[in-house]
Amino acid sequence: MPKTMTTLQQPRLKAALQGRTATSLGLLIILIAMCLTGLAQGAGTEQLLSLIIWGIMLGGIIALGSVGLTLCYGVLKFPNFAHGELVTLGAYVAYSVVQLLPQSEPIWRFSFGWEMLAGLLVAIPVTGLAAMLVDRALYSRLRQSKSALVLFAMASLGMAFFLRSIIYMVWGSDFHFYYVGRANPALQLPLGIRVQADQLFVLGLALVLVILLYLLLAKTRMGKAMRATADNPDLAQIRGIDTERVIAWTWVISGGLAAAGGVMYGLASQLRADMGFTLLLPMFAAVLLGGIGNAFGALIGAIVIGIAIQVTSSFMSPAYGPAVAFALMVLVLLMRPQGLFTDR
User: Is 270 part of any domain?
Assistant: First the structure.
C-alpha cells in the first residue's frame, strides 16, 4: 500500500514542482523586466542596486506583518482585515513609550536610541494582548455559534474601522515621528550601494523573528499544537489539545509580529492612523505569493513584493507601489493560486 500511494502521488508532486518552477520563473522575468525598464528610463546601475537592497529591507517590514497574517489564517481559516490596524496600534504604542522616556544617544549608526528598543519591547506584548482581547470579545462568540467564515471576514473589517477610530481618538489624526531632526546617515557598501543602518536593523529583526517563529512551530509543544489545530481543529480537540488556548497564543504571536512590523515601518517613514491599511494589500500579496499558512513563504513573498515596489519607483511614481503589489498578487492567483511554497 505505501508503494502504491507513493506511485499515485508522484504525478501530483511533479505537477506541483512544475507549477512552482513556472511561477518562480515568471516572477523572475518580471523583476528583470522592471530593472531593464528602470535602466531604459535613465536609472543608473548603482541606483538600481540600491533600490533592490532597499526593496529587501521593505520586504522585511512587510514580512513582519504578513507572517503574523498567514499564521492567523493558517489556524483560524479566515482573512483578518483588522491585521493592518494591529500594525498601526503597535507603532503608536511604541511611539508613546519613546515620548515618555528621555532620549538617549543613537546606538552605533542607527537613528534611534535605547528608548526605541524599549518601545518595541513594550509594543509587542501589548499589541499581542490587544489582539487576544479582540478575539475574546468578537471572534470567539462567532466560533461558539458556528458562524460562516464570511461572517468572520466581515466582522474583522468592522473591527478594523473600530480600532482605527480608537487610534484617532487617542493619538489624533496628525502625522508623528519617533525622532524629529535626527540624522540617519547612509552606509557605503561595495558596488556603490548606499543603505541606512536602520534598514539593516529592520531586515535583521525580520529574519530573527521568523527564525524564532519557525523554531516555535517546529520544536515546541505549543507549536505542534498549533500545526495540529491548523490541520484539523476537531481532531486536535478530540486528542486533548486545548484549541482555545492555541487560538489565544496564535493571536498573541500574530499581534506581536504585527506590532514589530508597525514599529519598523514607522521608523522608516512616519506614523499615521492609516499606515496599517496601506500595508494591508502588500501583506496579503506576500501571503498569497508564499502560500497561505507558510511563514517562510510569507517572508520570501514579502521580499519579492518589496523589491518590485522599490524597483518600479525608478520609472514611475512611488505612489503606485500598492498597485504593483496588487498586480503581482493577481498574477500569482492566475498562475498558482496555492502559492509557491506548497506541495499541492
Answer: yes
- Domain that residue 94 falls in: 50-276
CA distance 342 to 60: 21
Identify the burial level of 100 via C-beta atoms within 10 angstroms of its C-beta, where 0-12 means exposed, 13-18 middle and 19 or more buried: exposed
Q: Are 159 and 138 in contact (CB under 8 A)?
A: yes
* pLDDT tens figures, 195-215: 888 888 988 898 899 889 888
Q: Is residue 144 part of a domain?
A: yes
10-residue block means of pLDDT along the chain (344 residues)? 49 62 82 90 85 89 89 87 95 96 89 94 97 94 89 94 95 91 75 81 88 88 88 86 92 95 90 91 89 82 91 86 86 81 64
Between CA 272 and CA 249 the distance in angstroms is 28
168-182: burial string, b at 16+ Cβ within 10 Å, e else: eeebeeeebebbeee
Cell of 206: 525580520
User: What's the domain count of the chain?
Assistant: 1
Is the pTM value of this prediction over 0.85? yes
Burial of 125 (0-12, 13-18, 19+ CB in 10 A): middle
Does the residue 303 lie in any domain?
A: no
